[in-house]
Amino acid sequence: MDRPTPPALSQFVLKVHSRCDLACDHCYVYEHADTSWRGRPRAVSDDILAQVADRIAEHARRHRLPTVHVVLHGGEPLLAGPDRIRRAAEELQRALHSVSALDLRMHTNGVLLDEKFCELFLELGIKVGVSLDGDKVSNDRHRRYADGRSSHAKVIRAVELLNRPRYRRLFAGLLCTIDVENDPVAVYDALVALSPPRIDFLLPHATWDTPPPRPGGAATPYADWLDAIYRRWDAAGRPVPVRIFDSVLRTLRGESSLTESLGLAPADLVVIETDGTFEQADSLKTSYDGAPATGMDVFTHSLDDVLQHPGMLARQQGIEQLCAQCRSCPVVQSCGGGLYAHRYRTGNEFDNPSVFCPDLLALVTTIRDREAAVPAPTPTPAELPMEQGDFDALAAGFGGADTVARLTAAQLEINQELLAAVSEHIALSDREGARAWELLTDLDAEAPAELDAVLAHPYTRPWALSVLEGKAAPAGGLAEIAAATVLRARLGRSVTVPLRDGTLRLPGLGSVRLDGGSEDAEVTAGADGFTVRAGSGRLDIGWHEGLDGPTPRWQPVRLFEGEGWSVAIEDTDPLRDCHKWPVSGRLAVDEAKLWAEDLTGAWSLIRRELPAYADGVAAGLRLITPLHAQERSNVSAACKEAWGAIGAARPASPDQLALLIVHEFQHVKLAAVLDAVDLYDTADRNLYYAPWRDDPRPIGGLLQGTYAHIAVTDFWRVRRQTADAAFERGAAEAEFARWRQQTAEAVEELLGSGTLTDLGQRFVGSMGHTVRGWLDEPVSGAALTAAVGSAKRHRAEWKARVEASR
Asked: Above 50 in pLDDT, residue 30?
């Protein structure tokens, strides 16, 4: 799976020039405690650039990094000149070719930026972030030349240049250092007027030895300054991403921060100076002279050596590396102790809260409380993002073909939006990704139905999310989607597709196993089939070649064709491993036949005995991924991001397979409903009683389990009357009594949680109506007594365990 093996470094600040043409008095490089810049060469050398590139590639290869992020920095990096910048970019591209995608950026003060540089950046794929502290009055407070001249007009010209249509895609955003003497609204308005793709507000660097200014002795001037901007930003509909606000909002939701100055994510950044020495984050220069130093360099040490430096190790430990005051703080998950450098105090070094602690606490709690005070909109039936009839049918636990078809269409729209979002993550230097995206835009016009069919593949969404989370590079998946579309549409195009450990993935169609160490393959559709070329090898595969035909390297997806239902047995997709249980490898022919036989029996039972579920299953369940179980057992799972897919180990009988199918497809349907509406407060961190679990469950897990067990209860309700043998009917009656009791209790737990939205109350209330209708159905006294007794014992034992754990 495309995930780096932690710990790893994926962000690199490469100093290409060590001097600056401005004399900003708040600069952490030249105006704070560290003076190491004085002894370093002005510009980085060719030898060092080549070695840096090789070291980064070595590290990326070892840790299987999908993307490497490099920022060209200084001083002022534009002082290095176009030739030096070109050499840096080309060395990085050379070393990382076929290893990782390269996201290459530059941070500049902008005063030297001109069309010549912009053309170079277009060619090399370098995005540009510009430092600007707001309007002219605010910017001139600190960002001046050494002789006192203003830099504002030149920076504005640079930003206007980046906003030209030809160069807009180079523009990475604006960086603004906070000065509480400046008018926050004036600063924000000036920055927003420049239409940046992102704004970064940075706290000025300070420590407990040199604390930040607090005019008039104000307790939280930095939080107050940022809050004034937050209120204006929020009232305007949040027109531009603001990294510090987005990070607080994300961490309050339990997600990762977007900045090292907040959150608990391990440090994954290292700085390479112009003399080739490795340093920790530049912000440490504000602590004491030599604070960022590691004593290591690119010629003698690897990046894994750097990771073993005590300063780096300390920042891999999450909450454990924080001081006691921070660990006990109610907002530590969002604040994360603040920027590491801001904790420094002579005597105990970094074992302190941030010098901005009061401000960070106030900022996070203010945003948290303001967000909590905004009531979630309660849509009327006419405003539901789905038809009223669909909502009611799904809430009752069912949903026919038309309802599920509309869920499918909504899920396809999500995948289309995710694909567009993935395109935004293609680095300018990622030529393969750019070519694949350009082909996909052509295919969207040429073969839209075929492209949609590929995008609807259940494992498209997990892949796209992994790209957006930085866990996978975009190029490979985009090329795979393009190739599968070309083959479906029988277009005479050739598509180059990166291989995954020697496997060509064609989503929804199958996979081709290739030998010879090739890194990619060329796929070409023809009249009679398609051709795969990799290295010196070539495979010709016929369109109608059998499932286990004459080309053993070709592993097409096997299809089960039942009456009114076609479902894939997906044992080929390298990305199918997103279920709770490990997946099986390619099924042997005999095992595949057993699957087909069991599916025939299971589908016959579902159509005959569970018609309320059958049409929905036929409309929405498009693939089953075989799972691996040590022993034959009822192992099954659904991935909330993989619409239309379930995973299952083949159980002992077709009847059990029918139960697994209707059970897991309930999870699939509910996940789609939750994509459309909020049924509960997602910020609820409480745990609740689940009558079928020994452990307490979060509200989402309890809702999912209860909804799935409606189908389980219904299955046994029917089987107590239709099973062939008397002992089977008796066992089914006991199961029915047990599951209706447990599901009814779970519904009451949900309704009493106090965390359901108005729509959630309606939805769960309808679930309860379905289950309560079954409570009146007669069962034997023995079955009823056993069900009630089992429920009482389970709850009593659960309470005892919970109390003992407190």
From this structure: no
